[in-house]
């Protein structure tokens, strides 16, 4: 007999349980097939009316309802993962959805695309954020996934610039967690005198560094990747970066998840030509600008306060044109088709020198 | 009213269909919860007997059975994707499975881990293949996913060496497609005189290059990544590489999927301490060596022929020890617990100077 092989286990206790699971799987398959046929009918109706197959707000509602009626034992995140694949499969029956994103180097962008659309899509990795926009604008891809806010990289400015000039709408948003690690050549801090990272990463790991490596001097680097590259050449240098950088530069983690905020995340937005309907839990993004005079920003925001609309994000960027001082990227809670939001937006439009609505989209409840 | 916004669509045709889908979703949720409770019972039985929760052969059987009884409209691959998440969710209820793999740089390894285990796992990216083995051997991860055969990279020799010295078994196998692209600075072949790539990649794209770029000289590079890096500095140089390299080095694709074999793939194996039971469609991997004398290899293989066992892979590697000339990595169709295979293996063992069984594992039917 071959060695290293345990005998066949006694399955008398497991066999009846497995039969019942097989039986349930058969029933599940029938129901899922029935659901797919209904989705095909929905697709035919939409097709006849020239409407898009993918409705992010409808999928958000389905997931929210399931989270509400779920009595366990599976946690909400597992139910979500199963239905994501189920909806992805039903969608793909109609017409395979093509999704563009920033290519494999930004593994996070691909992960975001799969987390939003499930696995039954045609992925279209692009060499740049510009290409993601171009591909969706030209119809090569139905949707694009772009990073919009990243705790350590500056590159999302490119996304903001492209949103400004594009005719595409934001139709969904999601966030993925980001983890910082302390990396050295040996996997220990022995002999290490300095730690390098992007200033934002250093700031995000301040508490951990003060507690665990108070004697190590902090050095700013152009990026966490550059810091890891330098650490790979310098035994006395540690770097803060992701495990990807450890793999790439042959470094070892001294500690993982050292960022002070365990909920450190990168936010992505989905761009496309779909105009969503209200899902019940939506945000609306817009870009504004006002003439450069005292009190202008305060005045600009008055309509939001008057209509009881809350801002969830307010970011200013210097304008390149010189025509205005700043552009303001603003997210508000609510959908542009809700009367209260529509009224506030209309008032904003009349008060601003520049006004662009980027879209309303469902957010996770 | 805000601009760029279509009116709310008339949903009178869609609403009844969506109600039926919601109704089915409710039934699905009940069945899935019942399935999860049964999986918990299975887990309790296994736990009492000290058996592992993850049985790759059982999951392979569940998927094979579903593929068989599935009458559509969803294709087998969609059913597979849904059940992968369902089984992943049920498994995670018991004890979250921790899976080690070669870190984010090899995006493919992470994709392979998710394709094998579904999303409800604790992922453990490692800096090297050695670390993947160490982590599983030390119990830090329950399973590891390692590349074993890669059409363009030589690094899998490391996996073969580590398998030789490890006490872990191969308990599953899967393959992911690999796509070669022709990349240049401009996205065209204008002014391009040379194309660089790893020799294997050049060979794999021979037909395409002869048909579409016969005037371009072919140049061997250390790796496709190195070729892309060189092309980023040289306007007259094209590179063959993946889209990841395009993103990393700012190159543009002239053409995608130019490999002559559209089924170009990387094969991964899952390593762990689980000894699988026969699933009905299994392979068995082993390492052999024979003394260096004429006819030794032929003699070595005789037991396989005598017992009617077919080889699915035969690979030789020079031994480093000098004690034997070569090691042979052999895969055969069948499970080591099938009497015919067991008899052949026993006969092989008596004829070889070195014999190591790496494991039996389910393969996709």
Order of helices and strands of chain A: HHHEHEHEHEEEHHEHEHEEEHEEHE
Share of helix among residues of chain A?
Answer: 40-55%
Count of distinct structural domains of chain A: 3
What is the multimeric organization of the chains shown?
Answer: homodimer
What does the largest sheet of chain A look like? 5 strands, mixed
The CATH superfamily of the largest domain in chain A bears the name Periplasmic binding protein-like II
Domain Chorismate mutase (chains A, B): 8-98
Main location (chains A, B): cytoplasm
Domain ACT (chains A, B): 285-362
GO molecular function, one term (chains A, B): prephenate dehydratase activity
Task: Please provide a written account of the structure.
2 copies of one chain form a homodimer. Chain A has helices spanning 14-48, 56-69, 76-94, 107-117, 129-137, 156-165, 199-204, 206-212, 224-233, 243-249, 296-306, 339-351; strands spanning 98-102, 122-126, 143-150, 169-177, 181-184, 194-197, 217-220, 237-241, 252-256, 265-272, 282-289, 311-318, 326-333, 354-362. The N and C termini of chain A lie far apart (58 Å). In chain A, α1 crosses α3 (76-94) and α11 runs antiparallel to α12. Chain A is α/β, with parallel strands linked by helices. The longest helix of chain A is centred in the N-terminal third of the chain and has 35 residues, at 14-48. The first copy, chain A, has 3 domains: 34-178 and 270-277, 3-Layer(aba) Sandwich (D-Maltodextrin-Binding Protein, domain 2), CATH 3.40.190.10; 181-256, 3-Layer(aba) Sandwich (D-Maltodextrin-Binding Protein, domain 2), CATH 3.40.190.10; 278-365, ACT domain (Alpha-Beta Plaits). In chain A, a hairpin with a 7-residue loop joins β12 and β13. The radius of gyration of chain A is 25 Å and the shape is globular. In chain A, strands 2-1-3-10-4 form a 5-stranded mixed β-sheet, with helices on both faces. A 5-stranded mixed β-sheet of chain A has the order 7-6-8-5-9. In chain A, strands 12-13-11-14 form a 4-stranded antiparallel β-sheet. Mean pLDDT of chain A is 85; it is low at 1-7. Chain A has 12 helices and 14 strands. Helix content of chain A is 42%, strand content 25%. At the A-B interface, α1, α2, α3, α10 and α12 of A face α1, α2, α3, α10 and α12 of B.
